[in-house]
Amino acid sequence: MAFEPRYPIETKRLRLRPFNRGDVDAVFAYRKREDVARHLFDGPMTHQTATEVVGLRAGQFTLAAEGDKMFLAVDLADPHAMIGEVSLIWRDAVSRQGEIGYIFNPLHHGHGYATEATRVLLGLGFEDLGLHRIYARCAAANTASWHVMERLGMRREAHFREHAFFKGGWDEELVYAILEDEWRAMQPG
Predict the structure, then answer these.
(1) What is the arrangement of strands in the sheet containing 155-166, beginning at the earlier edge strand?
(2) What pTM does this model have?
(3) pLDDT digits (tens, 9 = 90+) for 8-54
(4) Number of other CB atoms surrounding residue 158 within 10 Å
(5) Beta strand pairing status for 133-139 and 97-104?
(6) CA atoms within 13 A on the CB side of 12
(7) For the chain, what are the domain ranges?
(8) What separation in angstroms does the CA of 8 have from each of 17, 30, 62, 178?
(9) Cβ proximity of 28 and 47 under 8 Å
(10) CA-to-CA distance for 32 and 160, rounded, in angstroms?
(11) Topology, domain 9-186
(12) DSSP for the chain?
């Protein structure tokens, strides 16, 4: 049976919802930027590539089996302007493992939006999907990203030094994780 949250998911400042074709220009606005692509597996996107990516993500908003990916657009609650995206991937059904990710338009960095939106995904993973452990990865040089992970209560589990040749140089990757009981201990009440 597929897990599909009731959309939109609203926080005090944000709305998380499935992607739609109308999101192409907003995605292109940040995915075309070199400063965004620097830490991602792909390079800056063309408008055509952004259109294709949004088309794929528009159908990825439920989790039914290991390997499924949920991609959600993140809007400001007021006005309803798309500012980024978050993802939850069901990595291992037997060991109940998941992975979260996020990409935000740099024009909206520094306001806690990534932390607020990603906290929703941790709740979905632990409370609704029954995951035991959720992890996230980022380039070691991406300090803004690993600071989000730390604000979420995740702990650094690994620092892979020069583990892959990436975009012309050796990549260093950090892995952060949080366990279900650690998540529950941080919840109010």
Answers:
(1) 9-10, 14-18, 69-76, 82-92, 97-104, 133-139, 169-179, 155-166
(2) 0.94
(3) 999 999 999 999 999 999 999 999 999 999 888 888 999 999 999 99
(4) 13
(5) parallel
(6) 6
(7) 9-186
(8) 5, 22, 13, 25
(9) yes
(10) 28
(11) Aminopeptidase (3.40.630)
(12) --B-PPSSEE-SSEEEEE--GGGHHHHHHHHT-HHHHTTSSS-PPPHHHHHHHHHHHTT---B-STT-EEEEEEEESSS--EEEEEEEEEEETTTTEEEEEEEE-GGGTTSSHHHHHHHHHHHIIIIIS--SEEEEEEETT-HHHHHHHHHTT-EEEEEEEEEEEETTEEEEEEEEEEEHHHHHHHS--
Q: Angle between the 113-123 and 143-151 helix axes, to the nearest 10 degrees?
A: 50
Which two three-digit tokens encode residue 94? 């037997």
What tokens does 1 get? 């049976």
